[in-house]
Every structure is written in C-alpha cells, then in structure tokens.
Amino acid sequence: MGDMSWLREFTLSMIDKLIGESLQALAKIISYGRDVITENDRIMTHSYSSTVLAFLEESASRRDSIEVVVTRSGPGRTGEAIVRQLSDSGLLVTFIDDTAVGLNMPEVNKVLLGADTVSADGVVNGVGSYQVTVLAARHSVPVYVLADTLKFDTTTGHREFDIENRDNTELVAPADLTQTVSIRNPHFDITPLELVTGVVTERGIMTPDAIIAFLNNQSIS
C-alpha cells in the first residue's frame, strides 16, 4: 500500500470545513432567532435540540428576561437532559410532564422546536411535537422551528419517514403484559407545515410557503 497520509489530511480538512460551516450556520440561526422572541416571553420547547439549546443559552447570556417551559419529551430522559443543561444558564425553567402541555399552553406565547428533517410533508422531530403544535394552534401560540437548511429534504412527492421505535421497556416491561398487547414507542413524529409559523434557518426566517418554494427550487437544480 502507498502512503495514505494525504487521504487522512484531506479527510481531516473536510471535517474541519464542515464543522466550521455548521458553526457559522448556527451563529446565523441564533442571530435570526432573536427576531422571534421578546422580553418576558414564556417559551415552551419539546424534544432535545442542540440548536434550540444554544439559542436559549445565548438568550440567557444577553440577559433576556424569558422563561422556558420544558416538557418531559416522551418516556426517555430527553426533557431531563434539557433541564439539566439549562439549569445553570440563569433562565427561569419549568419542567412539566407531556400530559400537562394543554394545561400550560395558555400561559405560553412561543413554542420553539428543533428538527431532524424538514420536508414538504412537514417537520420530523421528537415524538410529541405534533401534539404540541396542535395545542399551540388551538391557543394561537406561534411555533418556530430552528434548523439549518442541511436538514431540508428535497425529495419530491410523499415520502414515508422512519419513526425509529425506541426501547419498549421505556414504557413497560413486556413480561408484565399478555401476548395480546403490542407496544409502540416511536422516536419521531411529523408535524404538517401548516402548523408551523416559520423555520429559522441560516438563510433567514422562512414561512411554510417559502420552504415549499425553496425545496422545489433545490429539487430542480
């Protein structure tokens, strides 16, 4: 075998480039995101998102007087991880069970979510995001998704997304149930774009119509 050091150096340089571009995109998302919150906002977030957390921590560093309502985010410990990360930020944080989202939504004036994927079909995010946005719509609470355009799926037409079932034991020990009971513990769900006020990207804040136009242009090019 020949000297492969060039391949290693090339790979490392590409990794550095991607990391740099990702950090630049995050900085731009945080900058544009400032336009969607105001002093004394009470913001609800659901499902772990490093982008949303970075935005909230940056808001805390600017001493914005906001409160964050964090949901349990499913049977896993996602919500707990969010609370622990925000606990030293200086933000006022309230931790609630997912079953209390409807009860708390009237006291919230923004919802911030991350995204695994954004497509013409909707926003794929941690399971429970769909019901959070439905309740937000019921109470006229705007919903903003923070995601860079690398997460945009330009596939045309309807697509089935893998909801990735989690460990069933998070819900119940299967041995405690009869064989007539099946267990479903999905990791993701999909929220229709019509329930999203806007997606905050490194290109700016995009409405659902702007997202569709962007995806159509990308699929053509």
Quick rundown:
The chain is of the alpha/beta class.
CATH fold label: Rossmann fold
Q: What's the pLDDT, averaged over the residues? A: 87
Helix count equals 6
Order of adjacent strands in the largest pleated sheet:
3-2-1-4-7-9-10
Structural class: alpha/beta
How many E strands? 10
Helical content stands at 25-40%
CATH architecture: 3-Layer(aba) Sandwich
Roughly how many Å apart are the termini? 40 Å
Q: Kindly estimate the percentage of residues that lie in beta strands according to DSSP.
A: 15-25%
Task: Quickly name the level 1 CATH class.
Answer: Alpha Beta
Could you list some keywords that capture this structure?
seven-stranded mixed sheet; three-stranded antiparallel sheet; 221 residues
What does this structure look like?
The protein has one domain (25-220): Translation initiation factor eif-2b, domain 2 (Rossmann fold, 3-Layer(aba) Sandwich). The chain is 35% helix and 19% strand. The chain contains six helices and ten strands. It has helices spanning 5-33, 50-61, 78-86, 101-104, 129-138, 208-220, and strands at residues 42-45, 67-71, 92-96, 110-113, 117-119, 122-126, 143-146, 188-191, 198-201, 204-206. Helix 1 crosses helix 2 (50-61). The chain is globular, with a radius of gyration of 19 Å. The termini are far apart. The relative contact order is 0.15. The mean pLDDT is 87.
